[in-house]
Amino acid sequence: xxxxxxxxxxxxxxxxxxxxxxxxxxxxxxxxxxxxxxxxxxxxxxxxxxxxxxxxxxxxxxxxxxxxxxxxxxxxxxxxxxxxxxxxxxxxxxxx
Length: 96
Prior knowledge:
- The chain is of the alpha+beta class.
- It has helices at 2-43, 77-80, and strands at residues 44-49, 56-61, 67-70.
- The chain has one domain (2-87).
- It is rod-shaped.
């Protein structure tokens, strides 16, 4: 009986150790996921709406620091907005 009790305690200790290791792994994965989320949130600005067509857009900040509007499916909003021309900058003509 004493031997069975010792075996049960050993199994319990192994089980507890396994649970602790699983918890540590889960916390590490959570911390890594949060770090990736912070990076993404720094790139993506607040959700907004287009001033031309009033559709929802996301502002994505590119590596060069310029923010550009995107649809929720990842398409550049300038490609889908029916009023994109009203936001285009006019090109300067060179004078001779």
